[in-house]
Amino acid sequence: MNTWLTSFACATLLLALWLAPALAEGQTPRQQAEQELTRKAPNAGVEACSLITRADVKNATGRDPFVDAEPAGQGGWMCNVGIGELKVYSGPKSWETWESTLKSFKMDKEPQTQAPGFGERAYFLYPKPANKYQGNVAVLVTKSGNHTLVLSLDAPDGKSAESMRPALESLMKTILSRLP
Known about the structure:
37% of the residues lie in helices and 20% in strands. With 180 residues, the protein is α+β, with helices and mostly antiparallel strands. It has a single domain, classed as TATA-Binding Protein (2-Layer Sandwich). Helix 3 packs antiparallel against helix 5 (165-178).
């Protein structure tokens, strides 16, 4: 019985130590994501999935995302397409709302690379994976009128996030052409 109790105590201590950094910051990454999904629709009626399709992602990346576009968030302001995701922020403060999201996920200090041809503020973001289980993700952020669009694509295994730049550019041009 002592062996079992000792093992249980060790496991509990390890779990507490593992959770401590996340709890000390107030929210776990999962809680942050859930909070983001329930945020009031920042898209002013523009459903993200009306701007992107499975075929678009396949044409831009050369890979089948294996799922059709699936809306998320109140009002459908996010759209998941397997290996890609589109977020649409709308309104006069759409850029500030995006920056707030970036800061809440502690990604506001990640290096940004200017994205010529997509506007003065447009940039690419290649966040470093937080652990060995996360893949390489490339992000293109641009503003069009009162809309801030955030498009992300997963890089294939063994490829860098930067390798997704041409696909991001191609896909964003398609998305911008559909924006009302």
